Amino acid sequence: MTKIDTQEKLRAIYGEPLGLAAAKCLPALDPHCKHFISLAPFAVISSADSDGNADVSPRGDGPGFIKVIDDKTLVMPDRPGNNRVDSLSNIIDNPKVGMLFFVPGVNETLRINGIAEISTDPELLGLFADTPKAPITAIKITVEEAFLHCAKALMRSKLWDPETRIERKTLPTLAKMIKDQTSSDFAEGTQEEADKYFAQSIAERG
Question: Where are the alpha helices (DSSP H) in 30-148?
Fold first, then answer.
């Protein structure tokens, strides 16, 4: 059989984790993790509902937009969006989340797993008083695991290499793609108009 459907079959192919791969997993944030988060303007958060249906969501703002409270606690702002609130809905049903932090130009990433909760605590929302607009809610994450991930994935992808950048016009505009996917009838506009719209939305709503 070619399907790998047991832990035993999986380990028979891959073996056990190398010593350092297991040892590097920390139960809390150390100074290096905190420094990495302070430089990261972009992260993704993964979540799943009570049935295990998974989701992953990109989050971005200025460097350090996710605040480190202490060795075990992070707070992430939730900004206005399209009100799908997929991540938030999942967190209510299943608070376990995973996060991946990116720093432009750095090929290593930081992985964090933990337990999340959604809050409107003024003290937590006040952590983002340095931003033009306050978030609607704050996502508080209690860290259970934190570890640095090696550079190979980003090196293979050449993610930060200017020579591998794809011209935006290679893809249709977001409006065009969604219009085709939904058979909706709305004006597509240009990429420049779309960028202007989202920039204005960020300025007005955060």
Answer: 31-39, 86-93, 122-125
